Amino acid sequence: MEFTGSSYKGTFKNGRMEGDGQYTFPTGTRYVGGMKDGMFHGKGVLFFTSGSKYEGTWENGISKQGKYAFSDGLEYRNKDWDYCDGYDRRFYTERCSGLKPAGVSQLTNLDPPHVIPSGCYDCGDGFYDPNTRVITDYEQHFLRNADDYEHEWIMRTCRKSRDEIAGNSTDR
């Protein structure tokens, strides 16, 4: 597990990460927990840059059991999932805090939503610029380049910034 731009805080044994420590990937994702022979081992938590996290028990680098929680606290369930299932389309924050009064829209789970840079789209983990085909996080740090499939999906489904054209505004 040696990546350029990564870092490890903890002990080494025979040149490999060992015991409790903290490993940070080049993307900013952090693992905090047990290591054995250079791999995740024992209890540990992956903290993603989006604010979500995965708490699990690892064995030789493989998660044996765990739970994933989104940045808003919603825990993923493999069975009996009733969030965004087509019958109840409220955002998780609306489920927890109630709906807004009539006439007031909540556009995303984050209220107020991120301000999208001109000409860009909010693709859930950051902003997408269709001209450069680059996705950055919400602090404008590079995340990835979009392939053709992701480009088409974002253009078809994601919220777009407001475009001002000859005094008219369009919103997607």
From TrEMBL:
One GO CC annotation: motile cilium
The keyword Ligase is assigned to this record: no
InterPro entries, alphabetized: MORN, Morn5
Subcellular location: Cell projection, Cilium, Flagellum
Swiss-Prot/TrEMBL keywords: Cell projection, Cilium, Flagellum, Repeat
Keyword Ribosomal protein: no
Protein name according to UniProt: MORN repeat-containing protein 5
Organism: Esox lucius (Northern pike)
UniProt lineage: Eukaryota, Metazoa, Chordata, Craniata, Vertebrata
